[in-house]
Every structure is written in structure tokens, then in C-alpha cells.
Amino acid sequence: MNKMLYLQLLLVIISCTNYSVDPEEIEIYNSRVMMNDSLKAVLYSDAQNLAIEQMQKDERIYYTNPWLDEEDVQKYYKDFITIYTTLTNSNTNFGKYNRYMHFPDSKYLTQGLMAVDTSKTWAQSWLNGKQESGIESIDAIIKQFNLKVEIRQSWSSSKYDFFLLAHKPMNLNVPIQQLKKTNEFIYVDRNYAHSIIPNPKLLKDGSSRTYLFTYGWGDCFCGCIFKHYWQVTVNNKTIIDIYEYGDPIGYEQYF
Question: For residue 182, what are the contacts with CB-CB under 8 A and spacing of at least 6?
Fold first, then answer.
């Protein structure tokens, strides 16, 4: 046991290392990384999730603007392309563990959940497969934001689950807040089935941007106790700084 603790302490010290990537080597790395359509789609989804996180920092925008800022999405997406094509074959552990460091496909940007009193006449319209509820205020919101109502039988009972689906990723908080004001719902909100440690985080914005990627052990159902981090700064399609730190990776199986 003492030997194990010693090794862990030693690896913690080693893992807190500041790495620099030579810009001249980026072309070499790029030629060895398969940036396929599947990975591009994942990185684009990460960029969209990061964009909505940034919107949440400004309540004025978050409660009034239903659409993601496409300029921000493209900015983050290009940075992620640079990071992944550069670091996958670099001298960090990023390439080995980066497949775990994405936002989950949680439907956070495309799906809302509703609880409805099915004894109400208008709710029966939805249960019968109609998109129109007959309540003018509700139907106007659904139409304005091009939303779709979907009913699914609950997996745990004979009751039904009501879903609000967007035709593309968006800030669902805007139409949901409007639906709440109709006072026709028991509950309506976004699908919060979201990661406790979403990846990546934007630590610094500007001409250069700094991102934090987190790899967790999955050692607790409430969230990861042990974590490893990569802090990466990007400027004009070039990584200018990498700082890797945290709990030593490679010993996850002991926890």
C-alpha cells in the first residue's frame, strides 16, 4: 500500500507539467490524424454546447435570444479542430483520453420535457396525435420557434411523457419561459440529462482562447472525485501553450 501511495504522489508531481508544442510540428501532426466526419460532428456539437454555456452568463441574451451565435460556434469549432489535430499525436496523454472529453449527447439544445394534466381537453389533442393544442398562446409559441410535440409512453408506467423537440440546436430557454407563462403546464423545462463535468470549458476569451479539458475516473455516481486536466491556449490556429495537471492517469482501475 505504501508503494502505491508513493507512486501516486510521484505521478501527481510528474503530471503537473507545462508542455510546449512547436508550431513547426503542427503540419506533421495534422498529416497523421484522421479528422473524419464523425469526429468533426462531435467537435461541432461541443462548440454548440460551449456557445450556449457562454450565453447563460448574460441573462439578457439567455432569456431573449433563442438562437446560438454562429460566429462563436465556428470560432470554438475551429479551435477544437486545431487542438485535436495537434495534440492527438503530441507528447501529452491527450490523444489517449480525448474520446472521453466531450459534451454528452444530452439533447440539452434540442429537447424539452413537459408535465401535462391529461384531464385537460387541450392535452387530449396532443395525445390524439395533433400538433395543435387548441390553446392559442401555446400553439403560437410552438409555431414561432418551429417546435414539435412528441408523446412517448413512459418506460416505468402506463403514463405518457411529453417532449418538446427543436428542429435544430437552439437556446430552448426562450420558448420554454414563454410556455411557462401560459400557466397551462405542471412542469416544462429543458432536458437536464447533462454531464456533471461537461467538456470543454472556456477559461479565457479574446484574440487567444484558453480551454480546459477534463478526464474523470467515473469513481462516484455523483461525479468524478479524481480528475486529470489539460489547459490549452489557441491563437490563430496555433497552440501556444499547454498545461497538463491533476491526478495521475493510468491508475483508474484502483479506484
Answer: 135, 137, 138, 141
75-109 pLDDT per residue, tens: 999 999 999 988 876 666 787 777 777 877 667 78
Measure Cα distances from 36 to 40, 45, 81, 124 in Å.
6, 14, 11, 46
Q: Is 209 helix (H, G, I), strand (E, B) or coil?
A: strand
Q: What are phi and psi of 167, to 5 degrees?
A: -80, -15
What are the start-end ranges of the H helices in 111-237? 121-127, 136-144, 173-180
Q: Degrees (nearest 5) of the Cα angle 162, 167, 168? A: 120
The pTM score is: 0.78
Least confident of 26-30, 44-48, 249-253: 26-30
Residue 38 near residue 250, CB atoms below 8 Å = no
- Picking from 203, 205, 206, 222, the residue whose alpha carbon sits closest to that of residue 214 is 203
DSSP label at residue 24: G
| Inter-residue contact 213 to 203 (CB < 8 Å) | no
15 contacts 245 by C-beta, under 8 angstroms: yes
Half-sphere exposure in the Cβ direction for 127 (13 Å, CA) = 14
Over residues 59-69, the pLDDT tens digits come to 999 999 999 99
With a pLDDT cut of 70, the percent of the chain lying above it is 75
Residue 160 near residue 129 (C-beta atoms within 8 A): no
